[in-house]
């Protein structure tokens, strides 16, 4: 997944690190776009108009992705992969070092759209209506966090914090015996140090953030976000610097954070409030950051 992970366990029980490695290895072998032999890359290469069997974990992540695509009216869309690749955020970096041709963007838009993937509910199988290519990068880290959390629970560990690339799940209490505290950092590009902006209290839920301040490319003083709006074919470009979402699972939080980042503050806030989703937004303005959050987020803010 091209990132680091941290697991903190409170209590006497420990877990064999090999079990954790195996679980992560499994997810990469299933969902990575950086491995040509992953199950996902084989599905991307599979022919159209025929049912293809998928593993239970891939099936689960595809269903979560579809749910968030519907909720976000296509702002979140795992069929965005050809555009991700064109803009230089895939495994094959593009050779021209600037904005892709609009003709190239239009050509790739032909095969974009989550409606082109039919996911069977009763069978672990999917059907491609077009030659689509899927990218699970915006949800797989969160899903992996959930898998590790389940692994800890299956081993009777009831107080933990699991984090992969900034996506988090916590349960129980920290070493001081109180709820886990998670800091949302200030969204500063190339920051020398990480500055906490808000402290969140979290237990038994997933938390994920999406922002363009750490992963982006810079061309002639222009920044291109690695998050693409599948409806326009272009990287997102607005004043939303970071979105943090809390959800039942970290996979859902991860996908929703990316969806909200694509939608922009106004639409995302409406969806969050209409669906009781705790979400926290940081806007970048000329004179600094402006924060706002949905009604359900307030309960998680730690009183200083
Ligand atoms: P962030 O934490 O900034 O949301 P993620 O790692 O969760 O970043 O997701 C960004 C990655 O998701 C991109 O690198 C790309 O592979 C993929 N992606 C980009 N745009 C979209 C989109 N609109 N819907 C789903 N996945 C996307
Ligand atoms: Mg995400």
CATH class of the domain at 166-300: Alpha Beta
β-strand number: 16
What Rg is obtained from the alpha carbons, in whole angstroms? 19 Å
What is the architecture of the domain at 166-300 at the second tier of CATH? Answer: Roll
**Helix count, DSSP H or I runs of 4 or more residues:** 8
**SS-based class:** alpha+beta
Strands in their spatial order, largest beta sheet: 1-5-6-9-14-15-16
The residue fraction in helices comes out at 25-40%
Largest sheet: 7 strands, antiparallel
Fourth-tier CATH superfamily name of the domain at 166-300: ApbE-like domains
Description:
The protein is an alpha+beta fold. The chain has a domain at 166-300: ApbE-like domains (T-fold), CATH 3.10.520. The protein is 31% helix and 25% strand. The chain is built from 8 helices and 16 strands. The chain has helices at residues 17-31, 39-45, 56-71, 81-86, 102-109, 137-154, 250-263, 265-274, and strands spanning 5-9, 51-53, 117-119, 125-128, 160-164, 167-171, 180-185, 196-202, 206-211, 216-219, 222-225, 228-229, 234-235, 240-247, 279-285, 288-293. The strands form 5 sheets. The protein has a 7-stranded antiparallel sheet with strand order 1-5-6-9-14-15-16. A 3-stranded antiparallel sheet has the order 2-4-3, with helices on one face. The protein has a two-stranded antiparallel sheet with strand order 7-8. A hairpin with a 5-residue loop joins strand 3 and strand 4. Helix 3 (56-71) runs parallel beside helix 7 (250-263) and helix 6 packs antiparallel against helix 7 (250-263). The model has no long low-confidence stretch (mean pLDDT 91). Magnesium ion (MG) is lined by residues 138, 208, 210, 254-255, 257-258.
């Amino acid at each position: 997944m091209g990132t680091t992970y941290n697991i903190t366990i409170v209590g006497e029980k420990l877990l064999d690190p090999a079990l954790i490695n195996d679980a992560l290895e499994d997810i990469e072998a299933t969902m990575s776009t950086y491995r040509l032999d992953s199950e996902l890359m084989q599905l991307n290469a599979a022919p159209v108009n025929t049912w293809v069997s998928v593993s239970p974990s891939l099936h689960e992540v595809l269903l979560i992705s579809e749910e968030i695509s519907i909720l976000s009216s296509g702002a979140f869309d795992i069929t965005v992969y050809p555009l991700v690749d064109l803009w230089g955020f895939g495994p094959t970096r593009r050779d021209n070092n600037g904005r892709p041709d609009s003709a190239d963007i239009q050509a790739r838009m032909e095969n974009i759209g989550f409606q082109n993937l039919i996911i069977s509910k009763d069978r672990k199988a999917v059907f491609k209506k077009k030659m689509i290519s899927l990218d699970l990068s915006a949800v797989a880290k969160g899903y992996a966090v959930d898998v590790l959390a389940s692994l800890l629970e299956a081993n009777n560990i009831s107080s933990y914090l699991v984090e992969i690339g900034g996506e988090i799940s916590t349960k129980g209490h920290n070493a001081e015996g109180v709820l886990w505290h998670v800091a949302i950092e200030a969204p500063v590009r190339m920051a020398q140090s990480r500055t906490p902006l808000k402290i969140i209290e979290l237990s038994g839920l997933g938390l994920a953030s999406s922002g363009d301040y750490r992963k982006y490319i810079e061309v002639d003083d222009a920044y291109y976000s690695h998050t693409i709006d599948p409806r326009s074919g272009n990287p997102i470009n607005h004043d939303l610097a970071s979105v943090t979402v809390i959800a039942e699972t970290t996979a859902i939080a991860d996908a929703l954070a990316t969806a909200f980042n694509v939608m922009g503050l106004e639409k995302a806030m409406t969806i969050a409030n209409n669906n009781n989703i705790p979400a926290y937004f940081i806007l970048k303005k000329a004179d600094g950051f402006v924060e706002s959050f949905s009604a359900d987020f307030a309960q998680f803010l730690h009183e200083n």
